[in-house]
Each structure stands twice: as structure tokens, then as C-alpha cells.
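QA checklist item 7 of 12: single-chain prediction sanity check.
[x] sequence parsed
[x] length recorded as 245
[x] structure emitted
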Amino acid sequence: MRLYVNVDHVATVRQARRTVEPDPTEAADAARAGGADGITVHLREDRRHIQDDDVRRLAARDGILNLELATADDIVALAVQLAPHQATLVPERREEITTEGGLDLGAAPGEVDPRLVRAIAELHEAGVRVSLFIDPDAARIEQSAALGVEAVELHTGAYANADEPEPELHRLARAVRHAGRCGLAVHAGHGLTYGNVTPVAALSGIEELNIGHSIVSRSLLVGMRAAVAEMRELVDAARQDACVD
């Protein structure tokens, strides 16, 4: 299983003082040294944390970059120009603290936001692998497959926030299986922590986890390299146990 580390909140600390440190690109280097397979950043329309120059510098570095973005024309244009390994299209609202749910793909093919369709086409033309951030729902999975993307990232927020997580874990497992039948690669992320990642990491069929806030929080105490290594160990152990079972 690939572990992608989101370094957005390294930039959040920097932007609190509008200074040059901590540098998300240095954090990305440390994350890779700790065992991350790739780096994720979300370039938001309001530029509340990651900035355009951060994305340019990360794209120029060795290593895999997953760029999260909404369908804003200027951000899609930057993604097309830089052509990261992967772009994950996400919903975005200015007033939200963090992404609150998956993309709204409409109730029928004709109801899909034309900006989303255009963004997928432009990213594909630039040679970028495209993933859609969606709720773990069969209809959303089928709509994603119909849009021709390579992957979906299942929103794990309901699982992470549930008082009784078992039903949400079963929902995720069903969604993973359905996405596989639809020919989609499956990623997962949002709200995953050192305390709740193991059951998700053990789900057969998930290829990639995207984890940010928990790792960045831990890194304040132990350093980024060690924080990523701890998460890497948990993910790998979960996969090994799943294989044994």
C-alpha cells in the first residue's frame, strides 16, 4: 500500500506568520526519508496554506506529487503546466475548515458539472493521472468510472468521526470492492490517524492512503521523518496481518 503524506499544514504554520518557515518542500523531503511513497498538497482557491510556488518547487523535486485541486481555471491551468504524477479533484468551499465531503457528481450523467468534465479532459491531455475524491457510495463510484478517471479516493471522514466505526468500515469495504469491479484504482483518506488507520489499511483493494494532519501534528513532537516512519510501520503491519488472515 502506498502512503502519501499531505504537508498542507506545514504551510499552515508558515502562513500564520507569513514568513518562509517551515518549508513544505523540506517537510516533503523528510517525509520521503521516513518512508512516504509520495507527497500530497491541496492548492486551495483562497491559498490559505499551500501557495503556487510551493507546488512548483514540489513538482520540480524528485518524487511523486499528488496535487489536490478544485476546478478553478487558474489552478487547473497550473496543474496542466506542471503535470504532476496525479491530480485529485476535490470539492471546495471557502467557509469550510477542511474538506467536508466528496464531490457532487449529480444524479445523472448530464448533471455533472461541466467544469469537472473539462478539468478531467485537460489533465488527461497533459498526461496526468486523475482521481476523484468521493463519498464511499456505489452511485458515485459508477459515475466516476463513467467519467473515465483512473482512480477514486474514498472519503473516510464518516468512519473517522463515527462513535461506532464498524458500520462505516463495512461501508468502505463494500465501496472498495465495487470500485474494483468498475475498474478503478482505490485510494482513501480524510481524518485518518495513528489510532484509527489500521482497520482501513487492512482493507484489501485499497492501493493508497493520503494522511496529513495527524502526521504533521505528530511531527511537532518527534520530527517529520520519525512521524512518517511510525505511520509507515502501522500501515505495513496492517497489510501483513490482513494477508495472514
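[x] summary fact logged: The domain at 2-244 is CATH 3.20.20.70 (TIM Barrel).
[ ] second reviewer sign-off
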